[in-house]
């Protein structure tokens, strides 16, 4: 890996991934729909530059990959969750989650896959929720399950150019995405009760796995999904 683009790199797990690549001596492009934050991230780090990308907009995704020059490493961390029981969830909220988490992953794979250097890697962030249902999280769970399957299909389709495609499925990691759950009484405790290692994860712990998967040490790994969750996949997922 020599040149990485981290999508959703302005915050949380993506930001930790930017830092982990910088530590590994990799030149990084941070791409985010929050251009201001992406530019702040780039300005504070050597060898990092910022670009605007909205993964729900095909023109934006295509133009970014066309404009950035050569790259061999792609990480897609863009995501969000709109909670709501299936009988209550507004169609717009469903579409927004699916557009960002699932369709966004498709668009990133489509346009990165056309231009990435032979032998490169694409890593997509799925979730524990891609394999464990959570009541009140139907749009997110369905999207992340879709991400896991898209990664497997992409691994098959891009293997002829030795491009590896993998997923990382985090458990609970405290980031701006999840900080709101602290306001639901008992929810954080419920998560932790269901995590054998008994704590939430740090963004850097997800980033370490992402950097490993992008590295030559993972050269024979493709179409795989890595659970990075303190063992939470071994237990039931708590209701939201
Ligand atoms: P975060 O909110 O801190 O960061 C998400 C980033 O994605 C933000 O910078 C945001 O601006 C960007 N983004 C959102 N929509 C975008 C779009 N349409 N185009 C481009 N960028 C966009 O969240 P996080 O917790 O770091 O989550 C990163 C990924 O990890 C997400 O896919 C999330 O679903 C997944 N995940 C997180 C957790 C967790 O507990 N934090 C658990 C499992 C999976």
TrEMBL record:
<dbReference type="InterPro" id="IPR020904">
    <property type="entry name" value="Sc_DH/Rdtase_CS"/>
</dbReference>
<dbReference type="Pfam" id="PF13561">
    <property type="entry name" value="adh_short_C2"/>
</dbReference>
<protein>
    <submittedName>
        <fullName>Short-chain dehydrogenase</fullName>
    </submittedName>
</protein>
<dbReference type="InterPro" id="IPR002347">
    <property type="entry name" value="SDR_fam"/>
</dbReference>
<keyword id="KW-0560">Oxidoreductase</keyword>
<dbReference type="GO" id="GO:0016491">
    <property type="term" value="F:oxidoreductase activity"/>
</dbReference>
<dbReference type="InterPro" id="IPR036291">
    <property type="entry name" value="NAD(P)-bd_dom_sf"/>
</dbReference>
<comment type="similarity">
    <text>Belongs to the short-chain dehydrogenases/reductases (SDR) family.</text>
</comment>
């Amino acid at each position: 890996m020599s040149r990485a683009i981290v999508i959703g790199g302005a915050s949380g797990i993506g930001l930790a991934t930017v830092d982990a690549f910088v530590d590994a001596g990799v030149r990084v492009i941070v791409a985010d729909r929050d251009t201001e934050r992406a530019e702040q991230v780039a300005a504070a780090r050597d060898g990092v530059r910022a670009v605007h990308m909205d993964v729900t907009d095909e023109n934006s995704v295509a133009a970014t990959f066309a404009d950035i020059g050569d790259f061999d490493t792609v990480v897609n961390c863009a995501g969000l969750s709109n909670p709501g029981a299936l009988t209550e969830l507004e169609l717009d909220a469903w579409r927004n989650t699916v557009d960002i988490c699932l369709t966004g992953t498709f668009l990133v794979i489509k346009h990165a896959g056309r231009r990435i250097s032979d032998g490169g890697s694409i890593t997509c962030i799925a979730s524990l929720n891609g394999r464990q249902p959570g009541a009140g999280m139907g749009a997110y769970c369905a999207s992340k399950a879709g991400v896991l399957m898209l990664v497997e299909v992409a691994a098959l389709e891009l293997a002829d150019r030795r491009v590896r495609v993998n997923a990382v499925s985090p458990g609970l990691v405290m980031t701006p995405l999840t900080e709101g759950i602290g306001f639901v009484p008992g929810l954080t405790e419920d998560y932790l009760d269901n995590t054998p290692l008994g704590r939430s994860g740090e963004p850097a712990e997800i980033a370490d796995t992402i950097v490993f998967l992008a590295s030559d040490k993972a050269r024979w790994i493709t179409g795989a999904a890595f659970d990075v969750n303190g063992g939470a996949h071994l237990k039931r997922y708590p209701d939201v």
